[in-house]
Amino acid sequence: MSTITEIETDEQWQQLLSTAPPSTLIIASFHAPWAAPCAQMATVLSTLASEYPVTEPPSTKWVSINAEELSDISEAYDVTAVPYLVLLRNRQVVETVSGSSAVKVRTAIEKHAKKDGSAAQDAAAAPNGVAETAEVARPDAAAVDPAKQKEELFKRLDDLVKAAPVMLFMKGTPSAPQCGFSRQMVGILRDHSVKYGFFNILADDDVRQGLKEYAEWPTFPQLWVDGELVGGLDIVKEELSSNSDFFKPYSVNSEETAA
After folding, report:
1. pLDDT-derived band at 35, boundaries 50, 70, 90
2. Distance of alpha carbon 143 from its chain centroid, rounded?
3. Are 170 and 188 in contact (CB under 8 A)?
4. Whole-structure pTM value
5. SS (HEC) of 64-113
6. Average pLDDT value for residue range 146-174
7. Is 58 exposed, middle or buried (0-12, 13-18, 19+ CB in 10 A)?
8. In CATH, what is the architecture of 146-258?
9. What span, in angstroms and rounded, lies between the C-alpha atoms of 71 and 117?
């Protein structure tokens, strides 16, 4: 059965691209060690890979790539969030899947693993045959009601923005911000001793994209207070310039005084 190989250098990636037969489907999973959904996706992909025996020539090649350490590769394939799956054949991208939907990932892999191969190769790609497993996946994908999916996402977002009195939706984590604006926002909250919760939007593309519509605010970071959107970095700075005590009710110092 197939296994997943970790790509550790740019040279290793280029060697894979140059030596893989034109018919081989390369399944490249971009991940980050701090993103919990990536660990879940790694389990999903490991299970899927085990369904594809090693053939000659190889019908599939499974690799994982640290999106931050190998940033040049990430940029080449427009990886802006993780987990992120890139499917390639003959150096050409045939499909990408952003997010942690196991159904979407399985459907994409099974669809493209069938292409450019003989019937015998198709049958060898999975113990019960690719066509059979693809038929199992399609009804699940078709059964997803977009309106219901959006309703469930918005309910989740409603819970997330109220998870703490002050919630920061940022790129990265407070200890390792992934953009300058997020870093500045963390600095402001730290300077005002604000006790806050945070969500790394790079770890969940559904939240990252959905929150833009839910909040009617297209950029990050986003700061929410008591379940209401304050805004981005510029708005927070404006609030503080007009009211230096804006964060006082939410500061650790305020809690200590009250105690």
Report:
1. confident
2. 23
3. no
4. 0.48
5. EEECCCCHHHHHHCCCCCCCEEEEEECCEEEEEEECCCHHHHHHHHHHHH
6. 91
7. middle
8. 3-Layer(aba) Sandwich (3.40)
9. 32
